[in-house]
Structures are given as structure tokens and as C-alpha cells.
Amino acid sequence: MASSTAASSAHPAWTRSYRERAALSSASPLAAYLLRLISIKQTNLCLSADVDTSAELLALAEEVGDSICVLKTHADIVTDFNERTAKSLRDIARKKHFLIFEDRKFADIGGT
After folding, report:
1. The pTM is what?
2. Considering only CA atoms, which of 63, 67, 61 is closest in space to residue 93?
3. Of 72, 87, 95, 105, which residue is the catalytic one?
4. Neighbour-count burial of 71, counting CB atoms closer than 10 A to its CB (0-12 exposed, 13-18 middle, 19+ buried)
5. Is residue 86 a contact partner of residue 76, using CB atoms and an 8 Å limit?
6. How far is it, in rounded angstroms, from Cα 45 to Cα 68?
7. H or E segment at 73?
């Protein structure tokens, strides 16, 4: 009896597909887009691109773009990051269908 009660009160994330969750009215536009992207690409991988140069960042995005749904960047550690890098990265993301998440450290814990 307890298991049927638990199943009936399960959180929607446990019982619905990514596509079904994307269609919920409570999903923000960005969340809905990401959930649809995960469903289409059949991956929920996010890669953290901890590289030092624009060339490495762009090569990494090109290499793994088909297999990820999010690329987490750290533009502040890329020594030669510029507008051309940003445009090239956006172009790769559009072509390979992944989101870019910039992880800036504006107010991060100073001692870590």
C-alpha cells in the first residue's frame, strides 16, 4: 500500500519524460527549450570547458557539440577571449544545437 501512495505522489520529474516536462505550463521558456533539446539529442550532458585559449575552446565545442546539450564556459580564464571567439562559439552552438552557459565568478568565495 505504501508504494502505491509514493508512486501516486511522485514528483513530475520522476514520472514524465523530458518532452512532457517541457510542455508543462510551469516550465520557463529556457527550461522548456533545454528539456526539448535533451529529448531531441538524447543526452543531458553538460561539459565544463576549462581551457586557456580560444583555439582550445572552439576546438572542444566543435569536437563534443553533437554529444552535449550545454557547454559551460569560463571566458575569464581564456587568455585571448574576444568578440570573434564569442561569435565563433555561438555559431558552433547553433550548428551543433547546444546551449552556452557562462560561469562567471563575480562574487565567488574568495578563499577557495
Report:
1. 0.78
2. 61
3. 105
4. buried
5. no
6. 5
7. strand 70-73
**Quick one: pLDDT at residue 110?**
59
Q: CB of 98 within 8 A of CB of 70?
A: yes
Respond yes or no: is residue 105 known to be catalytic: yes
Contacts of 21 (CB under 8 A, 6+ apart): 12, 13, 27, 35
C-alpha cell, 34: 533545454
String of DSSP letters for 91-109: HHHHHHT-EEEE---TT--
Strand partners of residue 46: 70
β-bridge partners, 100: 71
pLDDT, block means (10 residues), the chain with 112 residues: 57 80 90 94 94 97 97 92 97 97 71 56
